Amino acid sequence: MEDAQFQYVEGQSRPSFASLLAAYEAESLAAVSTETCVLDVRYGPLERQTFDFFMAREKPRGTLAYFHAGYWQSRDKSTFRFIAPAYTAAGLNVALVNYPLCPTVSLPELVGAAKACVPAIRAQAGVDDNEHPPLLLSGHSAGAHIAVELALSGGQDIAGVVAMSGIYDLAPLLRTTLNQKLELDAAGAAACSPLHRAGTLTAPVLVVVGEEETPAFIEQSRRFHETLSKAGTRSSLHLAPGADHFSLLRQFSSPGSRLFDQVCMFLREP
Fold first, then answer.
1. Predicted TM-score of the model (pTM)
2. What is the pLDDT of residue 155?
3. Which residues share a beta bridge with 136?
4. Sign of the C-alpha dihedral, residues 190, 106, 152, 147?
């Protein structure tokens, strides 16, 4: 396997990314005009403790919370609003969550701040303490790590986790430029790696990775899935055909795709 900088940074880049990102942003603008939504709902005192809430087009069967990519140090929920329409049409509320970024906060502080979104999302969905319709946590890349960490925190009554192209063992990042802002040492990387605590996860997990991603990303997903399965946690591994790190979100947000159908299965009617 090649060096960590290639596996986790340069090797994931694709010539098509700029045009794909532009398409995502255009579709996200359109989603705001066509969907019933509330933008920038606050869930804490920090500037980036906000989420966008898109309402299901029919009586909601549950809520999908989505945490965006950006290696814990970049990007914004507004780019990923295009995800919402497919799920609102399927009867789900969608919450697109922002969170504080490194190095303004440390990675443990980032995760701690993100945890506060769960009760706020439930409140926005009109859920009181005696009513718990399903909440599904999802995320992409760094967002997958955050979604898993929130599920690991316990006491959240999570219906499931969709972890796409995640990093669950952060040790390799110490050998990349990403650590300039993450500022992790070996002990910190281990403490922030959900792979080492996966045995305590009780919510079912769908682990997803694109078949065109680097070997390191594919191995991260395989190891996480295998660790969950050995611990008795219900886990499925989905290798998305033809998908790279960025185009994977097309399958995630496309009704009729196998991945979309698997996500909706978490919140199917009894």
1. 0.96
2. 61
3. 64, 160
4. negative
